[in-house]
Each structure stands twice: as structure tokens, then as C-alpha cells.
Amino acid sequence: MAAGHSNYSVAVRCRPDGPWQQLLPGVLLLKSGQPTRRQRLKAAVLYAGPEAQITGIESLRAHGMHAFDADDLHMLIPSNRRLSSRDYVRVERTSRMPRARNIRGISFAPPYRAAVDAARNLRDPGEQRAVLYAPMEAGLCTIDQVRAEIDAGAQRGTAALRAMLDEVLPPPLANTVPHSWAKRLLSDAPLPAPEWNVPLHTNSGEPLGVADAWWDTVGLAWDFGNQYDTLTRRRHEAFSRAGVMVVRTDVAELRGNADRVVLALARGYYKAANRPRPAVHVIG
What we know:
This protein is an alpha+beta fold. It folds into three domains: 33 residues, no CATH class; 130 residues, no CATH class; 106 residues, Endonuclease, Chain A. Helix content is 40%, strand content 20%. The strands form four sheets. It has a five-stranded mixed sheet with strand order 11-10-9-8-12. A three-stranded mixed sheet has the order 3-4-5. A two-stranded antiparallel ribbon has the order 1-2. The chain is elongated and about 85 Å long.
């Protein structure tokens, strides 16, 4: 309108054979043909307003989990707003707007909120479980964050999700989250792939402990447990007595300082490779 178009001019251009199309009320795509996924996302944000966030499946996709797909687009808006769901956009009012993640100029709900929002709107338990655990297994959030989100949010549709979080998974999910972060970190590192969760013994059969990651050819162990407790200290002492070199990384550093962690591992690998391999072996 500000550019000089009348309602009639816009309507004519948005006819089925016209050069424009209306994606949502008040939102035009100035071209014909099928809109791209990103154009649909941008149109939804324009429709829902600057405070809105995309949650659910599309937020999980934006965070790198492309295995999931959905027909509609789930939007969060503040509870004091009045806006109806339209076409492919499903609007949900909430008094608990999370802190948004800006990804390529579009606001998305954080992974733990997106997973809960998506899972509670599914009916198939297998799909619910897959969506709920996906960001945790990818190292994008913790099981405690997901549980806190379920406890703090609307209770509708969450009973099954609570039960799923109490399941005993092999291995326990609380241990797989740091491992997921570690695997993602090493995917771009200039190091060979290690073995994971490796029980080590001396050649005489004495158990030493389990290395979170293990480079067998050079005898390097990587430990990235949640805390440096008595058991961890004793394991490190056993490794040291057996000649195993250990690189220790705390979880905060693993999550927030990838370059420093990779440098420490590379230095550890170099030092381990330039000395005799320790007399230890792996119990599979």
C-alpha cells in the first residue's frame, strides 16, 4: 500500500494466474510458483509478529535434526496477543515465552522446548519418543532441561512424556549426552576416530576402568565425565600407573570451547604417539 498499490491492484496480482500470491493474511510472496521452506517460515514470522517464535518440528530441523517433518508450522506467541491459526500456521499463546535462538535471521524456540512442544502434539508413542530424545542424543540439551520444561509447562499431553523420561535406556541417556557432544566435536577434528566406552585392562588382567574415548594405537584416553569425583580420580590414577595418557575435559568446556578441547586432544595424541605404547588391552 505504501508503494502505491490499491486493494484491487493487489487482489488482481494475487489471482491464480497472477505474478504474486498471498501466503498468509497480510503476507504476500512477490512471485508465482511453490514457495520454498524458508519463504514459508519467513511468512509465518511476518504473520505472527516480531515476538513470535517457531517451535516444534521446524525448530528441531533448524537445529540440525532433519529426520523429522510436519505439515503445519507451530508458532509461539505471547499470551497477551490475539491471533488465529491460519492455513499451515498453528498459533499457540503462552505465558512462558522461551529465550529464542536466532538462526539465519529467524527466531526459533530452544531445542528442549521445541522437543516437548512437538512430542505432546503427537499420538504415536514411537514418534513421541524419537522427537523427545532427539535433541538430547544430539547433545543440544540435557534430560534435566527437558524434564524441567515438562514440569513448568502446560500439563496437557505430558503424562506419556514423563513416563518416557523415566525409562531406563541402554546406555542411560544422561551418559550419552556428553558423548554426543564429544562425537560432534571430533567429527571436524584432525584426529582419527576413537573407540567409545572402552574397558581397559593391564596385560596381566588387572582392570583399570572405562575410558570415555580411547585411541588404541597410541594408548590415549579421553575423559569427559560430568564431575571429577573420587571414582574418576582413582580411575585416572590407575591409568597413570599403567602408562596410559589421559586428557581430561569437563562438560562446560566440552560444550563451550571446542577449539581448546581439540587442541588439547591433538597435543595429547602427539605426545602419546611419540612414546612407547602402554601395556594395556581392551576388553570388548
